[in-house]
Every structure is written in C-alpha cells, then in structure tokens.
Write a structure and sequence with these properties.
Elements lengths: L3 H17 L1 H9 L1 E5 L6 H14 L4 E6 L2 E6 L5 H24 L4 E7 L2 E6 L5 E5 L5 E3 L1 H4 L12
Antiparallel strand pairs: 1-3, 2-3, 4-5, 5-6, 6-7
The structure holds zinc ion.
Length: 157
C-alpha cells in the first residue's frame, strides 16, 4: 500500500488544482462558461488564465466580453486524450476502487477527479482515498486500507 504522507500530499495537490480550475472545469464539462462582468475581478486576466490552461491541455478556446458578460467557449470537441483518461479512470474505478472499498464496508463516492487522479470518500464514515490511474495505478488512503467503522453489510445499499 502507498505511503500515507505521500497520499495526503497528492490529495492536497489535487484539491488545490481542481479548486483553481473551477471555471475551466466548467468549460470542459459543458463546453462554455459565461459570467457577469461584476463577478470577475479582472476579465482580461480571467481570459488569459482560461487560455493558458486550455493551451496546456492542447484545447482550442475562444473567449470574449459581450453584453456585460465575460465568456469562454470550446472551439473544438473534447480531444481524444481526455476520453482515454476518462476510460482509464472508469475502468480503474469499477475494477479496483469500488470493489476494494466495498469489501471493507465503505460506501464509496468520487468527490473530485482531474484527468486520471481522483479523490474518493466513504459516505458513511468519511474515510478518504486517492487513486492515480497512471502511476501504477497508485491507490491509497484509509478508504482502501481500513474497515468502515460505520459499515454494515457491503451490499446494504
Ligand atoms: Zn466507511
């Protein structure tokens, strides 16, 4: 099993990254983001940040300011690489993460996901788990190592 310190460090990094990515994440999930200008402190900086993140993911976006709104749109459909990440994540989830946590009595849900990294939590006891589908996969945290203190039968739900 993975080193708990390393797992906690990775969870922290993932949470920070996903929080920072809120608007960009919405753009990826829904193909567009539209915000009232008064909610954006610096529209030019906002647009530059969206473009920077899109460039690093090799995604084309268009951004602008129209009628009191600042907006960003995906110029192309979500690229293939992201679909591959989704598939690897979902495969890992169904083949390892869910069965492993369930066997310990946890009721597992994915809280955050970014690419191939995911933060998972038990809805009964709050135990956390982390998984990175690329690194091995790397799986760790109490969710996958300790029995659920609130756990009933694994198939209770
Ligand atoms: Zn639990």
């Amino acid at each position: 099993m993975a080193d708990p310190v390393e797992i906690n460090r990775r969870i922290k990094r993932l949470v920070t990254r996903v929080r920072r990515r809120d608007d960009y994440g919405t753009l990826l999930a829904t193909s567009q983001v539209l915000l009232p200008l008064e909610e954006v402190e610096d529209p030019d900086a906002w647009r530059a940040e969206i473009k920077r993140q899109a460039r690093s993911d090799r995604i084309k976006v268009r951004t602008g300011v129209t009628g009191g709104k600042v907006w960003a749109l995906l110029a192309d459909p979500i690229p293939e690489v992201q679909r591959d990440e989704d598939l690897r994540h979902f495969h890992l989830y169904h083949s390892h993460l869910e069965p492993q946590a369930k066997a310990l009595g946890h009721d597992v849900r994915v809280v955050l996901r970014d690419g191939e990294e995911a933060l998972l939590i038990c809805q009964r006891c709050g135990a956390r788990g982390y998984a990175d589908a690329t690194a091995g996969p790397l799986i760790g945290g109490p969710l996958f190592e300790d029995e659920c203190p609130e756990g009933g039968l694994p198939d209770e739900d």
